[in-house]
Amino acid sequence: MRRGLGVSFLIGWALAASFQVNGEATYEARAPLGAWRGVNPTLEGQVVFEPNQGLLQGKVCLDLSAWDSKEPLRDRHTRDMFQVDRYPKACLDIQAFEPGKSLVQGTLSLHGVERKIAVPVRYTLEQGGKTLRFEAEFELLLSDYGLKAPSFMGMRVQDRVMVRVRGQGVAR
Q1: Which run of H or of E encompasses 3?
Q2: DSSP string of 68-131?
Q3: Measured by CB atoms within 10 angstroms of the end CB, which terminus of the chain is less buried, N or C?
Q4: How many C-alpha atoms does 83 have within 13 Å on its Cβ side?
Q5: What proportion of the chain, given as a percentage, has pLDDT over 90?
Q6: For domain 2-171, which CATH number applies: 3.40.50.10610, 3.30.565.10, 2.40.128.110, 1.10.3720.10?
């Protein structure tokens, strides 16, 4: 039985497609006097994906110095919070995919802290499986990663931040 499972896994791996991924991440943050969002267009990485076998592995990263909220002072505070000179990237090391739930599982590395996460994702395969499009949305607690939320004039940004990721992958 084990041999059959191993052969099945290897066949699934052989049928899987490798994708060069790029995209963007958006955050939505709140403070006592309002909310705003920032966009980061630097998402990139590589994944191997075969949805029918539940196979998804790879790594995607984001350059943390590239956030743009249309407010330079806020963006500087964001870069300071992330300590981009010391921790320039956030990366998701993807380890598994649950097809029935469309749930991506992996380890998020941010600010020198690694945490296991599970993120629901919506995806489509287009052009005969040569193009992968995806969207995901999840909440992140800054304190889970040792980050101290910025404050301005005594008002602190809330610890809970909504993160949205969207992108595409091109089969290689």
Answers
A1: helix 2-15
A2: B-S-HHHHHHHHHHHTTTT--EEEEEEEEEETTTTEEEEEEEETTEEEEEEEEEEEEEEGGGTE
A3: N
A4: 10
A5: 79
A6: 2.40.128.110
Whether this prediction's pTM lies above 0.85 is answered by yes
Per-residue three-class SS string for 122-150: EEEEEHHHCEEEEEEEEEEEHHHHCCCCC
**How many residues are there in the chain?**
172
Closest by CA position to 27, among listed 95, 77, 96: 77
Q: What is the rounded CA–CA span in Å between residue 135 and residue 153?
A: 35
Q: Look at the block and give the residue holding tokens 């075969």.
A: 50
**Residue-level pLDDT at 63:** 98
Strand partners, 91: 61, 109
